[in-house]
């Protein structure tokens, strides 16, 4: 009889833990990120800078985009719930038949939010 209770107790603990892990998967951390990207392939400050800035700013989840042409640096503020650095890089690299080459230099969290996706 004690053996049955021990087995039942162990099963309840294991099932409870696995359900908790599933719930934790549904609670994702999202936040506002500030990413710095290097961009190669820009030919002119007015045309290329404005074009890339305009295209990145229109992406869903991007709050702000600034480009320093002289430093070949793009700074983007974006919401991880909608977009990530890889998607931004792929988008920039696809512009004008691959003329530009963006790479992530660093990424910092600006604001932490927790959203429940249940």
Please provide the ordered H/E string of secondary-structure elements: HEHEEHE
Give the assembly state of these chains: single chain
Let me know the largest β-sheet.
Answer: 4 strands, antiparallel
Helix content: 25-40%
Strand content: 35-45%
Number of strands: 4
Average pLDDT for all residues: 82
Q: Provide the structure class.
A: alpha+beta
Q: Which regions contain 5 or more consecutive residues with pLDDT less than 50?
A: 19-28, 114-118
- Coarse morphology: elongated
CATH class category name of the domain at 29-109:
Alpha Beta
**CA-based gyration radius:** 22 Å
CATH topology of the domain at 29-109: Alpha-Beta Plaits
In the CATH hierarchy, the architecture of the domain at 29-109 is 2-Layer Sandwich
Enumerate the strands of the largest sheet in spatial order, edge to edge or round the barrel: 2-3-1-4
* Cα distance spanning the termini: 39 Å
Please tally the helical runs, counting DSSP H or I stretches of 4 or more residues.
3
Explain what you see.
With 118 residues, the protein is an alpha+beta fold. It has a domain at 29-109: Alpha-Beta Plaits, CATH 3.30.70.100. It has three helices and four strands; from the N terminus they run H-E-H-E-E-H-E. The protein has a four-stranded antiparallel β-sheet. The protein is elongated and about 80 Å long.
Throw out a few tags for this protein.
single chain, 118 residues, 39% helix, 4 strands, Alpha-Beta Plaits, elongated, alpha+beta, disordered C terminus, four-stranded antiparallel beta sheet
